[in-house]
Each structure stands twice: as C-alpha cells, then as structure tokens.
Amino acid sequence: MPAQSKEAAISPWGLAVAGATGAVIANAMVYPLDIVKTRLQVQEKRKPADPRLDATILYEHYDSTWDAISKIVADDGIIGLYAGINGALIGVASTNFAYFYWYSVVRTLYISSKKIQTPPGTIAELSMGAVAGAIAQVFTIPVAVITTRQQTQGKGEKKGMIDTARDVVNSEDGWTGLWRGLKASLVLVVNPAITYGAYQRLREVIFPGKANLRPWEAFLLGAMSKSLATIATQPLIVAKVGLQSKPPPSRAGKPFKSFIEVMQFIVENEGLLGLFKGIAPQISKGLLVQGLLMMTKERMELLFVVLFRYLRKMRSDKLRQTAELAASKAKQTLPIVIKP
C-alpha cells in the first residue's frame, strides 16, 4: 500500500524520535494550558457556606481557565505558568518515545504476520495502541507523578524535581508512590489508543492512499482524533490527577487509595459534572498538542526518510569507490604475463 511506504522506510527508533520530538515541541508551546487544567482538576468545588480565608489560604481557587491564568501570573509572574515544565517535557519525551517505538514495532509485526498486506482495522489499531501505551506507562509514570505534584504545589511550596521526588518517596507510600495512579494510567491507555486509532482511520477515510500529509492536514486529523479521545476519557483523567496530587484539604491529608475512590469523592461533593472539570483547557490543550504533534511528526518522518536515503546513497557511493580503488590496485600489483 502506498500509505505504508514511508513507515516502512523508517526504523522503529526513527519513528520514536520523530514522535518524541513532535510531542516535546507541541507540549512546550501550550504548557500553560497544561498547568491550568491540572489545577482546575485537583481543586474542590467551593460551597456557598465555605469561609473564604483569602488572607491565609494556601491553595488558590480558580473559577475558569482565564481566572486561573490571571491568578497564577499575579502570584508567581509569567514563570508561574511554566512550573514543573522540565519534568513535564522529560515525561512527554520519554512517554512518547516509548509509545511510538512500541506502536511501530507492534504494528509492523501485525502487518507482516498477515498473508494479505492490508491496513489494520479499527479494532486492531485500538488494540495495538493500547499495548504500546501500557508498556510506555509502566516505565514513565514516575515522571508524571512528580510533574503533577510540582504543578499543584501551593504558595511557598515550590520545589525542584529531585526534592519533589524525595517527598513522594518519604510519604506513606514509599517508593511505590512514584507509581501512584498506575492502574488509572493503564486504563487510560485507551486515550492514546483511541487517538492514534482514530487518526489512522480518519487518515484512510479523508486522505486515502496519501503517503505524505500537508501540515494542515496532519493538524486537522490530530485535533479531531484527540477531541474524541478526551471527551471519552475525561473522568479517568480527572481521577488520575487526583490520585497523583496531594489530597484535597477536606481529607485532612488522607490520600486516595484508588481512582474509583477519587471518582466517588468527586461525585459526592461536586456531582457528576465534577468528573468533567477542567475539560475546556484539557480539550484546548489536546487539540493544539495533538495537532502540532502530528504536524511536526509528519515533517520529522519525512526528514528521516530523506536523511536515511542520503546516508544509504553515501554508503553506496563509498562502497563503490572502495571497490574501484581495490580493483585499480589489484591491476597495478598483478604480475605481467608475457607469452613465450
């Protein structure tokens, strides 16, 4: 199939580097939305009877995305919108590298195992995405836990990655605290599975047989597929963030034990709509990140194809020159045979 020619020309690690590069660039560009959606998702909904201790409250309360941005900038300056960005980008790079590597490996094995070389169906795409996502999560979730803690630190609590990691390890969970929310994360592999499964299917439907997409085409497909995945998995995303952050003040420091407990707590205190808090910046971030990621990834993959072809041509030319040089030397050193 023509659409598969580009993937076949790039090794799994090349696809992984392309995916990780695109993810880092995209997430760095929209990081403020990431920290805003995280803070909106971990805060408790205020009740009318709650006292507003604005002078002494440790955690600011936000009413909307713009309100959160305004208050963060007022308290910490523009740099406050980038709290924890180092850990976040390390996590993004490692997660996406692992994901795209294993996704390309699993997909290649699946296609090569079929007698007829046809694109995988929707169920197969979702399954392969889930397998790749699960493998990636197991190895990269500690960085996600540390980043979430950094993003939700209150006034006067700002710490670096190492100190934040030490706090997690020194908590009642010990070293296992670095893998807090793993079960929720494994369930959430359906998010990238839906995203990339939908991306592949939409690509085949909207741009059938097209090997190289234009930047706006890749952006459109990425944005559409991520929107579908976000809406379907938002309650789980909110529950995972609640697990990985510090417990809300009303729990007096008692951490959640499971994502089901987080969801029950939210429903009891905020109603069903509480499971979708922060969805506006979540979708906005998802649209931009996925669109930019796929757009950048497509360009990076094309760059890798050109680079690999150039390197192969250089190697071929070098081998040819070496062979010609060896043949020339052989002719010079051969004894001259004179007929009697």
- The sequence of SSEs as H and E is HHHHHHHHHHHH
Mean pLDDT: 77
> Helix fraction?
55-70%
Structural class: mainly alpha
Query: Which stretches of 5+ consecutive residues score pLDDT under 50?
Result: 1-6, 51-57
Largest sheet: none
Fraction of residues in β-strands: under 5%
N→C terminal distance: 64 Å
In total, how many beta strands?
Answer: 0
Summary, kept brief:
With 340 residues, the chain is mainly α.
Task: Please describe the structure with a list of short key phrases separated by commas or semicolons.
single chain, 340 residues, mainly alpha, 12 helices, 69% helix, disordered N terminus
Structure, explained:
- With 340 residues, the chain is mostly helical.
- The chain is 69% helix and 0% strand.
- It has helices at 5-9, 12-29, 31-42, 65-76, 85-113, 122-151, 161-169, 182-187, 190-206, 215-244, 259-270, 279-333.
- It is elongated, with a radius of gyration of 25 Å.
- It starts with a helix and ends in a 7-residue tail after the last helix.
- Residues 1-6 and 51-57 have low confidence and may be disordered.
Describe the protein's topology.
Blueprint: H1 5-9, H2 12-29, H3 31-42, H4 65-76, H5 85-113, H6 122-151, H7 161-169, H8 182-187, H9 190-206, H10 215-244, H11 259-270, H12 279-333
Helix pairs in contact: 2-5, 2-12, 3-12, 5-6, 6-7, 6-9, 9-10, 10-11, 10-12
